Amino acid sequence: MSLTITDLEQLQTEHPEWQMELVDGKIIVSPPSDYESEEIGTRLITLLNNWVMSRKLGRVTGSSAGFILPRIEEDDLEKRNLRASDVSFVRADRLKKTKRDFVELVPDLIVEIKSKSDRIKPLEEKIQLFLQLGSVVGILIDPDKITVTVYRLNQTPVMLENGDTLTLPDLLPGWELAVSELWPPEFE
Questions:
Q1: pLDDT of residue 77
Q2: Which one, of 110, 182, 186, lies nearest residue 143 by Cα?
Q3: Residue 166, SS3?
Q4: In this structure, what DSSP letter does residue 152 have?
Q5: N or C: which end of the chain has fewer CB within 10 A?
Q6: How far is CA 2 from the centre of its chain?
Q7: How many Cβ atoms from other residues are within 10 Å of residue 62's Cβ?
Q8: pLDDT tens for residues 89-143?
Q9: Is the pLDDT score of 79 beyond 80?
Q10: Distance, CA of 129 to CA of 160 (rounded, Å)
Q11: Which residues are CB-neighbours of 67 under 8 A, at least 6 positions away?
């Protein structure tokens, strides 16, 4: 049985605490993120959103924002994927007004943050899917290796480490973030 976005919406009404995506007619339920991965995502959202909003460049969202992706096979009208990334950015000219629903577009930037239970390969495959569908940049943050890998379609990924600066000149000219700012601080 192949499920639809309507089925997913019904399940979300029944189980609002579940984080769900619809992939090829199957609902994928994700467990809560580990604390460190969530803190990294929150740090990135805060730093990115402060810069983006002050310039009115677009919208930054977290892991609960759902994107209805373009159909892979045009003849199958019901086979729609609904995906979410840990952090996303959509340029203002592509989403002039926010919606009280899932948005039917591919974000310009997606960020996946490896949680304790994640495997790298599925995260890389998800990033590649978004890039093939139109995302400009995909980023994979790996707290285990303390790296940030930047992906662009048909280009070799660029791995950044502490001491490096993350920039996205093709998407957010002028924005810079020291990779070391992503990692949660230790308090004494």
A1: 52
A2: 182
A3: strand
A4: -
A5: C
A6: 25
A7: 17
A8: 999 999 999 989 999 999 999 999 999 989 999 999 999 999 999 999 999 999 9
A9: no
A10: 22
A11: 82, 83, 84, 85, 88, 102, 103, 104, 105, 106, 107
Cα distances (Å, whole numbers) of residue 66 to 94, 106, 148, 160? 16, 10, 23, 28
Please compute Rg for the chain using Cα positions.
17
Tell me how far the alpha carbon of residue 72 is from its chain's centroid: 19
Q: Give bridge partners of residue 172 from the DSSP assignment.
A: 168
pLDDT in tens, 45-64: 999 999 999 999 999 999 98
Three-state secondary structure call for residue 101: coil
Distance CA 81, CA 107 (A): 14
pLDDT at 76 over 80: no
Average confidence (pLDDT) over 24-50:
91
Within 8 A by CB and 6+ apart from 34, the residues are: 115, 116, 117
Q: Collapsing DSSP states into helix, strand and coil, what is residue 109?
A: strand
Hey, what amino acid is at 165? T
pLDDT of amino acid 74:
55
